[in-house]
Amino acid sequence: MRRLFGSVRSRATLGATLVVAIALIAAGTAVTLSLRSNLSGQASTQAERSARSVAADLAGGQSYDQLSLDDDDRPVQVVDQAGTLVAASEELERISGTGVGAVRPQGSAAGVGDDDDQGDDDESLEPGEIGEETTFGDGSAAIDGDTEDYRFAAVTVEVQGKGTLTVYAGAPLAAEQSAVRTALTVMLIGFPLLLAVVAAVTWRVTRRALRPVEGIRSEMAAITASEDLARRVPVPDTHDEVAGLARTTNETLAALEASVERQRRFVADASHELRSPIASLRTQLEVGAAHPELLDLAGAVEDTVRLQRLATDLLLLARLDAGERPAGTRFDLGALVREEAAGRAGVAVDAPVVEVTGSRGQLARVLANLLDNARRHAGEQVSVRVRRDGVWAVAEVADDGAGVPADQRERIFERFVRLDDARTRDDGGAGLGLAIARDVAVRHGGTLTVREAPEGGALFELRLPGAP
What are phi and psi of 256, to 5 degrees? Predict the structure, then answer.
């Protein structure tokens, strides 16, 4: 049961059916009440018309035995101001709802009242005058053996010599009750059928609407099982949310595929770069073990340093890829540039005070990488300049070397990329310095780009958000 109503299709069907059911119940109740009110109003009008007709005859001077009380087979009572029944329908056998249960007149003299009492009981009525107000009530009556429910109207009339008389006349409620029963029967039969139709239509519509979602789910399950990130989910030929979901899923798969491919290349390249110094170090140690006099101690130390630097670079890249956020330390970028340039031959520095916020250690690594790269490719001179450009703090490292070809200016920031393939690893490094520099710059909310320097070489521009 939980699984059945756990699906979107089942919940949508159940929800639509409940909403329609509530709407039908509310509409049916409103229709029933309106029908009952209208029919009850018609019965009230008929009862009032009958009561006022009898009251008009009394006001015209007709005696009780001359009244036409059996023309419409409706219950009629005439009661004097003392509450005594003075006239009634001849075939009336039982009555309730009028306040007077008698069905036979008490005698012709019962309706005669005292003139003085008349004036005291109702001073607003003149002799022969019918009261303007009509009161209504529900009750039942038995006429000629048939018992029915009636709507009773009560009208007062002032008759000279008889005082204030009250005429009760009833109109049958059989039509109202029959109509209400018919409406309820139709509702009890029709509403379940209509709800069944709504449920069936909603079930089919949601099945058709969710069919692309099932296709996406099954394809994602197949991708998960096969671990083939090159596959894509089907995109329906629509312009709705499901098509948007499929496109977004494919974009996510493409990004995941690219990320996994980068990781694979990274692992492969890292393994390749680590193999060379490890193999060299092992060879030297094996030779030294066999022939201590041939041990190249300086070369072994150099290979160990290279291996240590490469491991440090790989560890830093792993932390950056893991989303490590830089520290929020505020410091002087100009002072950091002067520290990194100190002791490097052929480096000209112009670094006034420009404050930034971030990781001082990571930005020091960026500047060191840029300076090492510039020194490696410079002819004679490397220049470093720090300046403020609006909200940005800018550090420029330029050399007078051969520069970087325009079509290679983005490729050099990729990992393990060395443009000069003939250059030895000892001279050129593993190709991680610029990749690390750009990743650190981006993590600090800045950029690292390269363009042609005024001296003809390469100019690397590091832009960082300046501290306020």
Answer: -65, -40
Q: Could you tell me if 310 and 359 lie in one domain?
A: no
What pLDDT does residue 6 have? 60
Which residues of the chain fall below pLDDT 70?
1-6, 71-72, 107-127, 418-430
- H or E element at residue 413: none
> Domain span at residue 302?
241-321
- Other C-beta atoms lying within 10 Å of the C-beta of residue 155: 25
Asked if residue 353 and residue 291 are part of one domain, the reply reads no
Q: What is the pLDDT of residue 123?
A: 43
SS3 of residue 421 by DSSP: coil
Beta pairing partners, 155: 134, 167
Q: What is the pTM of this model?
A: 0.50
Strand partners, 331: 356
Burial 170-197, CB ≥16 within 10 A → b, else e: bbbbeebeeebeeeeeebeeebeeebee
Q: Quote the distance between the C-alpha of residue 45 and its chain's center.
A: 54
CA distance to 44, 55, 76, 313, 384, per residue, from 129 (Å):
22, 9, 20, 114, 117
Closest alpha carbon to 151 in 184, 130, 131, 174: 174
Strand partners, 387: 394
Please tell me the predicted confidence (pLDDT) of residue 122.
Answer: 43
Question: Is residue 305 domain-resident?
Answer: yes
Report angle CA 438, 441, 446 to the nearest 5 degrees. 125
Helix (H, G, I), strand (E, B) or coil at 308: helix
Domain match, 158 and 40 both: yes
Q: How far apart are CA 313 and CA 315, in angstroms?
A: 5
Q: What percentage of the chain reaches a pLDDT higher than 90?
A: 32
Q: Does one domain contain both 304 and 385? A: no
Residue type, 461: E
Residue whose structure tokens are 């996994």:
260
- Which residues are bridge partners to 393 per DSSP? 388, 464
